Amino acid sequence: MTGGDDAELRFVGFFPVEGDTAIAELMSGDDIWGDLRLDGIDLAARGPARTAHAVVQLRLFPPPDGRAYWDFGFEEAQGLLSRAKAWLLKNEHGRIPDAAEEGS
Q1: What radius of gyration do the chain's Cα atoms show?
Q2: Cβ contacts of 80-85, under 8 Å, gap ≥ 24
Q3: Residue 82 — very low, low, confident or very high, per pLDDT cuts 50/70/90?
Q4: What is the domain extent for residue 6?
């Protein structure tokens, strides 16, 4: 899953381990500058109740090649973060708890 049409800043959604929540990797060109993930998901709930008390976590990574900082526009980054968050929430709202999550 890729978010947005901009070739420079984009996100790539992936699922690291079966049963875990998705992660949105934040990309600038071919480099990962951070990721966005949900913390505090109610795994036994369904729909929006899964994320009613969740927190969106942003992790930032240092630029490659010893650069001191990333350089991109605020509005561009803000738009990307909003699209990535929306994708994470939509994905989580569509998940159905398995038997282990529901306590069966």
Answers
A1: 15
A2: 80/3, 80/4, 80/6, 80/9, 80/10, 80/11, 80/26, 81/26, 81/36, 83/3, 83/4, 83/11, 84/3, 84/11, 84/13, 84/24, 84/26, 84/36, 85/24, 85/36, 85/56
A3: very high
A4: 2-102
Neighbours of 92 (CB within 10 A): 20
pLDDT for res 95: 85
User: Tokens 């994470």 — which residue?
Assistant: 88
User: What are 23's two structure tokens?
Assistant: 């992660």
| Tally of domains within the chain | 1
Return the structure tokens found at 74: 């605020």
Contacts with 20 (C-beta within 8 Å, 6 or more apart), sequence order: none
Which pTM was predicted? 0.82
